[in-house]
Amino acid sequence: MISRREFVRITTAAGAAMLVSFNTSCRNKISRWRFLTGEEISLLDAIVEQIIPTDDFPGGRWANVSNFIDRQLDSYYRKHQVAYREGLSAMGMTVFQLKGRKFEELPFAEQTDMMEMMESGTFPGDYWEEHSPAGFFNMLRDHSLQGFYGSPVHGGNREYISYRMLGLDYPNIIGQNRYKDLSWRIYDAKSPANGK
Amino acid sequence: MANKRVNAVVVGAGAGGGVVAKELATGGLSVVLIERGRWHSYDEHGDDELTSQRTFPLKCGFGPDNERNWRMSPDGKNGWVKVFPNQWSYGNNAACVGSGTVSYGAMAWRFQPDDFRLKSKYGAVPGSTLEDWPLTYEEIEPFYEKAEYEIGVAGDPTNDPFVPPRKKPYPMPAFSLNGEGIILEKAAWRLGLHPFPIPMLRNSVPYNGRPACIRMRTCVGYACPVGAKAGTQNTVIPAALKTGNCELRINCMVSEIMIDDKGRAKGVRYFDADNRLQEQVSDIVVVSASASESARLLLNSRSRLFPAGAGNNNGWVGRNIQDHAYAGAYGLFEEEVYDDVGPGACIAVNDFNHRIPGIIGGGVLCNEFIRMPYQFTSIRPRNSKMWGIEHKDFQKRYFRRHIAVHGPAQEMPVFDKKVEVDPVVRDFWGIPVARISGSRHDNDIKAGRFLAEKAEEWLKEAGAVSTWQAVPGKESTPSQHQSGTCRMGNDPATSVTNKFGQLHEIDNVFIADGSLHVNNGGYNPALTILALGYWVGGHIIDMWKGTKMK
Ligand SMILES: Cc1cc2nc3c(=O)[nH]c(=O)nc-3n(C[C@H](O)[C@H](O)[C@H](O)COP(=O)(O)OP(=O)(O)OC[C@H]3O[C@@H](n4cnc5c(N)ncnc54)[C@H](O)[C@@H]3O)c2cc1C
Ligand code: SF4
Q1: What are the backbone dihedrals phi and psi of residue B90, each rounded to the nearest 5 degrees, phi first?
Q2: Residue B31: which domain range?
Q3: What's the pTM value of the predicted model, to 2 decimals?
Q4: Do B174 and A186 touch (CB under 8 A)?
Q5: I want to staple A144 with a disulfide (CB 3.0 to 4.6 A). Which of A51, A92, A180, B123 is the partner?
Q6: pLDDT tens track for B153-195
């Protein structure tokens, strides 16, 4: 399990290198991330994989959801920078105290337990000042879903993976996906196709 | 600094303002149309769900921006909290050339004749300022028709026994139903209901020089890539500009209507694209800034004779803000019902508009526009797990196997549901911001629950194996269907304008947008706002011919 996810992580980096248009800056600098640190990303990668796990389709980590969040923290979500910095560190420290290991090193099911505690408000909130574990969880969940299902222009939903998962053609190429035959467009109040 | 004097300034290039500008310009008046937003194109937005005008976690793609525009909203503890356009508690519609009509779903409803005489039909309603409109359906009918023909509506009322009376057919045939529409149509007939295709401000066939719709999944919340969706930005505003009588000034924020010592308007003050304060002098001012922003502008235009804001000596400006108490149900199906034929919403029943014992108003029920992937993540039966493998399984199984039916339950006007200006907080330009507060009337909740019940029955009959309802709550901020803040009326004590949209208190200031609505019908409001634009514009021309508004 661990090794497969490790594998996924490595291929993510390789995949990201190919997706130049999505990750143009920072790659040759010290960090490819805009706001988050490498350490925060490794925790966040495990979190987004909890929110959208890999099954027969890739999960949040492969879909570059952490990259989506990092990009937003440097643009639309600047207002959430403090929450992320505080939340990820508080979460990491609490888990280490409870389990003696980093969140991302725990078996998947134990990570899920931690996430459920955060969601239900039973996760210790000692290290939080500005936010609560439950509040942080809700934000992580919502942002992860945005990263997985939103347009790839924002750095997530790599290769429109969620659209493929839902069986939607992608991207929407205007005038090419369908629409040659015009006759079906018009409603006929009397036609059997329209019930009568 | 000095702008040339013109006959009319129109504030806001949205639904109402676009039509009025065109009516005045073709009627020979010189017009300056001032819009705080700018032009938008499909290419700029594409199918980006996170910045659409429907789900907007990152921003409202069609404006206004979060950087310069905010409001105050009740914090639930007797205080106020600052809110931004991409929060529902802000109460946004849009801000660009065309405003909501660029990114809307384009449903093109006429209100029912009874909607114009609601109080006569149902009697006075305790806790509500419910009133009849000063104009009848028969009076507005030709203007609905004009809107349908000039802007372009596709529809077919053959199978709707409750259709508001019309003299002419729709200019374009209705759209065919998509897969879920056909399933719902059959189920509706089995239930004894009367399903019919939703009239749409979209071209089903080439019309007015624009092509037919290509039926995409991204329509509501997005711009149209081919120009098949008709808004004011691709119909009346270009027509206004073509007359040579109308100048459109974009990125300009109007801050105040200037009132002279005799209590008449002399024009407006605005911040131009470079944030310089400008004055535009005019004979007439038409305010079409949307129900919330029109009220804000009047309230911010204080003068010696109108210390509480222009036209507000009776204290009714900003009162009675309404939207709709949206209600409905979701159904899950065994088989795939999704066929990717957009925009999704295609079928409606009018059976629950004014035909419900014990409920005032009611509303139309329709199948919903396509729920895009991120939006769908919040569509779940109660107590569902919203993340993890259960979340993903649900997405995979039910994105293509669910149908949503909902409708806009008519809201009762409530005096204390209102727009005010904040005494302290100012926006980027230093203009006092709007704050919107107040709770829904109990009838709205009752009507909403009734509609949700009916939506659920419909889905069950259609074969849904699991269903759940979505019902309105007491608290909500009017947003995309905002209306009613400067209502028209015969009694100057309980309304802001006369039946022609002319302020009772200032005869050269007119309103032409959703603010005029005395009530908001059981339908999406845009076609009524467009029709009122023609109505008000036509009357301004008539008055102009007589007196030149001197
Ligand atoms: C996503 C979405 C879907 C919708 N779907 C439907 C639908 O299917 N059917 C339907 O009937 N309706 C629909 N609507 C609602 C419809 O768009 C509105 O009812 C309509 O646009 C309101 O018209 P209005 O003239 O009152 O205001 P608006 O159209 O909002 O116009 C007001 C304009 O004034 C400008 N303005 C405001 N203040 C100032 C200022 N101080 N200075 C300069 N300019 C200013 C604004 O920027 C805006 O452009 C939808 C709206 C949205 C956003
Ligand atoms: S569905 Fe039709 S009207 Fe709507 S945006 Fe697409 S082409 Fe335009």
Answers
A1: -75, -40
A2: 6-547
A3: 0.94
A4: yes
A5: A51
A6: 999 999 999 999 999 999 999 999 999 999 999 999 999 999 9
B458 within a domain of the structure (yes/no): yes
Q: Is residue B1 part of a domain?
A: no
Q: Are B32 and B306 in contact (CB under 8 A)?
A: no
Residues at CB less than 6 angstroms from ligand 1: B 11-17, 34-37, 53-54, 93-96, 99-101, 103-107, 220-221, 253-254, 288-291, 293, 297, 480-481, 513-514, 524-527, 529
Using an 8 Å CB-CB cutoff, list chain A residues near B205. 182, 185-186
pLDDT tens column, A142-185: 999 999 999 999 999 999 999 999 999 876 666 555 554 555 56
How far apart are the C-alpha atoms of A127 and A141, rounded to whole Å?
Answer: 20
**Number of structural domains chain B divides into:** 1
Give the Å distances, CA to CA, from A32 to A8, A14, A74, A87, B259: 18, 13, 13, 21, 57
Q: Report chain A residues whose CB lies below 8 A from the CB of B50.
A: 146, 150-151, 154
Q: What angle do CA A185, A186, A188 make, to 5 degrees?
A: 140
Q: Enumerate residues lining ligand 2, CB below 6 A.
A: B 202, 213-216, 219, 224, 226, 228-229, 342-343
User: How far is A96 from chain B, CA to nearest CA, in Å?
Assistant: 22
Please check whether residue B441 lies inside any domain of the structure: yes
Say if the Cβ atoms of A144 and B175 lie within 8 Å. no
Task: Of B415, B362, B409, B441, give the one whose Cα is nearest residue B122.
Answer: B362
For residue B94, give the CATH number of its domain: 3.50.50.60
The ipTM, to two decimals, is 0.95
